[in-house]
TrEMBL record:
The chain crosses the membrane at residues 6-22, 34-58, 91-118, 167-187, 193-213. Keywords: Membrane, Transmembrane, Transmembrane helix. Residues 10-82 form the Concentrative nucleoside transporter N-terminal domain. This is Purine nucleoside transporter. Residues 93-190 form the Nucleoside transporter/FeoB GTPase Gate domain. It comes from Candidatus Enterococcus lemimoniae. It comes from the Bacteria.
Length: 249
């Protein structure tokens, strides 16, 4: 256990040292915020892997995702029984077909406002706790739920208002992210609790690295989140038609 702990401490120090070495402006790095992020990541790793309540919570979330995948196979089996109800299921079917349910489900939850509500308040809490800019915190939580492409699309209005240094931060954070579709594939290859534990840890790590590599100082006036007007949003059933047309193509 002691050796395991020392290896992890050494890994964190090496990780931070490399980021500092390649930093664009070492003098303006906000070390207080970064230390809070590191401590938050350590706490999450401990809570989700070593604390009974954390393990219970992540197992329940994993059970929910597994249920979604099983439900998707029920639908796929109804339409393509020869592909699903077989002894040796093709890897393409087992890994990729559940995406046809999970990704549209995330899009629907975004449309009706469930995911935006969760993302908004988690982003605010993360910003308040760590001292990171509001939008960067908001975007990090967006990536955790929506993936890179969807998060960039949702935040396009905000991105047009950011200065180039902050856009670079967002671009680097985006490189650490995986989409809901890829997560579904991972869930078919690895135990769900490991995949779901890695997602929030990965997001916090992305914030740590970008804060060291590309430190940005912003004013209070700049630290805002642009509110997107929804007056042009399609009716729900039109949205469903467009969504499933995209899935089919």
């Amino acid at each position: 256990m002691t050796i395991y702990l020392l290896i992890n401490i050494l890994g964190v120090l090496l990780f931070m040292g490399l980021a500092w070495l390649f930093s664009k402006d070492r003098k303006t790095i906000h070390w207080r915020s970064i230390i809070v992020l590191v401590l938050l990541n350590i706490f999450l790793a401990w809570f989700l892997t070593s604390f009974s309540a954390g393990r219970f919570a992540i197992e329940k979330v994993a059970d929910g995702f597994n249920w979604l995948i099983e439900t998707s196979f029920s639908g796929i089996g109804f339409a393509f029984s020869s592909m699903v109800n077989v002894k040796n299921m093709d890897v393409v079917v087992s890994a990729l077909m559940p995406i046809l349910l999970v990704v549209p489900l995330f899009d629907i939850l975004t449309y009706i406002g469930v995911l935006p509500f969760i993302i908004k308040w988690l982003g605010k809490g993360l910003s308040k706790l760590t001292g990171q800019p509001k939008f960067e915190s908001f975007f990090a939580v967006e990536m955790m739920f929506l993936g890179n492409t969807e998060a960039l699309a949702v935040s396009s209005g905000q991105l047009k208002r950011l200065k180039s240094a902050r856009i670079l931060t967002i671009s680097m954070m985006s490189m650490s992210c995986v989409s809901a579709a890829v997560i579904v594939v991972y869930l078919q290859m690895l135990p769900a609790q490991f995949v779901l534990t890695a997602i929030p840890l990965n997001i916090i790590n992305a914030m740590i690295v970008t804060s060291v590599l590309n430190p940005v100082t912003i004013t209070e006036e700049e630290d805002t989140i642009y509110k997107i007007e929804k007056t042009d949003r399609e009716p729900f059933f039109s949205f469903l038609g467009i969504l499933f047309w995209k899935q089919g193509n």
